[in-house]
Amino acid sequence: MKILVIGGSGMIGGDAAIHLAALGHEVTIGSRKPPLAATPMARMPFLAGDYIAGGYGREELAGFDAMVFAAGQDTRHVGKDDDAAAYWERTNAELVPQLFERARDAGVGCAINIGSFYPQAAPHLLEGNAYIRSRKASDERVRALARPGFRVISLNPPYMLGAVPGLDPRGFEKVAAYADGKFPDIPVYAPPGGVNFMSIRSLAEATAGAIERGQSGKAYLVGDENLSFRDYFQLYFRAFGKDVEVPVIDKPHPLIGSFAGHGGEIYFDPDPTEAALLGYRRNDIATAVGEIVALYRSRG
């Protein structure tokens, strides 16, 4: 199957591309810039484009059997002079469905939207959070485009973590450095609260399962382990072989947080029938943290 992964130069899209290619699919990376040369994605065909600027027209999308969209906008992408609510409404709620419309009109048979767990797992946060509302609107408007011959499926994952060879592990590297003692000004502690975590490997498997077996028009809430932030930090110390008990202190921590707010918890159990249908592994968080620490160590 010929599959275009938009956002395939990044962590989530890149790992999905690697997994899909390993399954024998012909994968093309879609991104504004080519993947870093040190990553496995650099060996795949590349299609330059920016969906926010109207990239990926019908002619470019024609010929692909499936499209995976893993380039949704979040807090990292908002400029300091931008109106955040207006930015997310435009980039997530308006432009993502327009991209899926072009894919439909180009004859793409299946389109997977990688969204966010917040609207499904924590709907009480919708009223006060423009970002979460934009993700919900994007999800619903994309799935509304489904029709015979055009399967549309949303995968809505929680707090994601993992490591792609050759790719900067983002904030995870800071947590690894923290456990390695490289932030002496930050005492060892964790804030109260926690979330559901999922590895990029599990999500890549769910993506392949959605392409093969997912129900068109459905939004799947996917995830893996419910962990307190204390237990999450603890995994990093253990990956370094340190027998450290991380205390919980009732104050924010500069290296972690969520839209649930200080002390908030967003826990859920994925539907076991849906998890089996999509075919993704569970209990993968400790392994993912070990891979992050290994990549951190390899970078000196």
From TrEMBL:
It comes from the Bacteria. GO terms for molecular function: aldehyde dehydrogenase (NAD+) activity. Coiled coil: none annotated. SUPFAM superfamilies: NAD(P)-binding Rossmann-fold domains. InterPro entries: Epimerase_deHydtase, NAD(P)-bd_dom_sf, NAD(P)-dependent_oxidoreduct. Residues 3-223 form the NAD-dependent epimerase/dehydratase domain. GO terms for cellular component: cytoplasm. PANTHER family: NAD(P)-BINDING DOMAIN-CONTAINING PROTEIN-RELATED, PROTEIN YEEZ. This is Nucleoside-diphosphate-sugar epimerase. It comes from Rhizorhabdus histidinilytica.
